[in-house]
TrEMBL record:
The keyword Transcription regulation does not apply. Residues 1-23 form the signal peptide. This is Gluconolactonase. It is found in: Secreted. InterPro entries: 6-blade_b-propeller_TolB-like, MRJP/yellow-related. The lineage of its organism: Bacteria, Pseudomonadati, Pseudomonadota, Alphaproteobacteria, Acetobacterales. The keyword Secreted applies. PANTHER family: PROTEIN YELLOW-LIKE PROTEIN, PROTEIN YELLOW-RELATED. Keywords: Secreted, Signal. Gene3D superfamilies: TolB, C-terminal domain.
Amino acid sequence: MKKHYQALLVAVSMAAVSSQALAAADSASSDTHVSVAADTLPAGQMEIIAALPEPGPSGIAVTEGGRVFLTFPRHATDHDKPSLGELRDGKIIAWPDENITRETSLPVTQRLVSPHGLTLDTKGRLWLIDDGKVAGHPIEPGAAKIVGFDVKTGKEIANIPLHAPAMLPDSHMNDLRVDLTHGKAGTVYIADSSFGTSPGLVIVDIATGKQRRVLTHHPSVLAEPGFEAVLEGRVRCYDPHHPGFPIGGIDSITLSNDSKTLYYSPLTSRRLYSLPTALLADPAATDDKLASAVTDLGEKVMTDGLATDAWNRIYLTAGEHDSIMRRSPDGQIDVIARDPRIIWPDGIFATRTHVYYVLGQWNRLPGFNDGHNLRKPPYLIARTPITPP
């Protein structure tokens, strides 16, 4: 009851801030005849459920019972904390245990080196993509992998190492979604955003471990040349040779709630694309056939994460606008939360009652700021209530 009351206070205070800001704007307008841009004002409800110290989190998944899991990758900044944890009473507890989530003596194939994307399948099992990368070091063979867990027991149910030719030397296995409607045990779709300039979509059969790389040269997975974004008032231009912005290939990825459609977008793009999973999961489908099936669903906002709710609405991490937005099946996009604390939202996950998101501050990394680390803990984990359409 106490936690519910605290959450209610946060929601009410956010609404009050919004009302006060709007009132101030109206007053300023009437007194001085100066209009104030509405997109600078808070909107919607944002409840902070955790404020975490270093290291910075990335992926998030929330079970039907409300358990919250988070990943803590090591590819940008190495650390000695758990790389996968469960949020309990505002603190991170190594999950499933300390041994596999820290840099222990276990082989890289048996521990979580740098888990990034996180998701649940339709059976409620937890899946992650381990990009295998430790800052300043090459990716060891077997370090990049797909790992699945039974959340009730913590038992590992799958461990699939990624390898050539599906994986490239500069691969950044960034995010994943699990489709249980294709393949004997299901199919995994991975967004390889690339640590270099070779992004692609990787398809893995869970039962056999067979994997293939598709659409590596298709515009829908590539970074848009000359792409620019405004983050915290600063214009950032995508330039792989002089990084001022994260590498920009295919990044955001989500499934329709019936798993018939995969939606995706490069980081350096404002377009949303889709493909039928029946074709993606078919190992006989050629790149030409897949390319002809890509649908351009039109413009959205720049996103680092996508999530689908029970009503097939897609949630967008809109870092340029300090916002979380929602795209309806008819293509309409609405702001559901806007707050100046929404700094580079990354991982995102939708339940039937809330959309949860991680505020990662990725644009503040030293690699994009002349060697200066501008990230400022605590890292916020937030959620916004949602209702059926």
